Amino acid sequence: MKGFSKILRKTDTKKRLSVPIRFLKSLPPFKLGSHAVEFEATDEKGETWAFQCSTRKSGPYRKPVLTTGWVAFVKSKKLQIGDKLLMESLSVLLHLTSPMESGTMHDSHSGDSIDCLVV
After folding, report:
1. Domain with 55 in it: what CATH number?
2. Cα 66 from Cα 23, distance rounded (Å)
3. Can you tell me the distance from the alpha carbon of 18 to that of 38, in angstroms, rounded to the nearest whole number?
4. Per-residue pLDDT reduced to its tens digit, 51-109
5. What are the φ/ψ torsions at residue 75 (nearest 5 degrees)?
6. Which residues pair with residue 41 across a beta bridge?
7. Number of domains in the chain
8. Cα separation, 113 vs 92, whole angstroms
9. Pure H helices in 1-119
10. What region holds the TF-B3 domain (predicted)?
11. How far apart are CA 89 and CA 35, in angstroms?
């Protein structure tokens, strides 16, 4: 996955985060017959967050979304509608930027985990 960016909308901050289908390549494999997978991400403070990515059970488009754990992450980071989310590989980095604030990017570590950084 090369990455993607997204301006957070109401649904992204209140219920779930819709992600591009290519994001699935960055996650652990789904078990046979399953439409959800759990994974962990580490934020800029080293705190680990557990998320679940789920997809539609049927239909031509899987429409992946982050559900379990996402709203707690949003509340903890005080994310709002209009904040910018940037995910990029190798070990998927999450950069969150408020439209009203700017800051310095934090360094992340490489590895198999997903890193979450707030700027």
Report:
1. 2.40.330.10
2. 11
3. 15
4. 888 888 877 777 889 899 999 999 998 999 999 887 665 454 555 556 655 443 333 33
5. -65, -45
6. 49, 114
7. 1
8. 8
9. 10-14, 70-77
10. 2-100
11. 23
